[in-house]
Amino acid sequence: MVCGRHSCGRHGHCLWPSWFVAVIVEPRREWMKLCCSLKDLAAFIKEVDTELAKPLEEGDYDALVNIIRILWRIKDRQAATDEMFEPLKQAIELLKIYNQDLPDEVHTHLQVVSCTC
Fold this sequence. Notes:
This protein has helices at residues 12-52, 61-97, 104-116; strands spanning 2-3, 6-7. It is mostly helical. The protein has one domain (29-116). A two-stranded antiparallel sheet has the order 1-2. It is elongated, with a radius of gyration of 22 Å.
């Protein structure tokens, strides 16, 4: 990379945008992605709970097919959901090191997820 007449390695002011992106922006993007994943999971759980709470009458083939569809959707999401919690665990541990807590929004979504699992 070139900064004016000098290579960026020669002037500290040329490196800060890369540092800013690497240290501040990327973790923030990952954090927002995690928050969105928690929101999606909470919405999915709410939807599944609503569908599974519907009564199943004997001989109701359509309702039975719907339940099987729901179970397949749960199975399809299982791996992605399981993988989602490892970065969350890492983020929590990192925050603990610096005596920080999770944002209230994340606590709210975690409560929804833990209450319905």
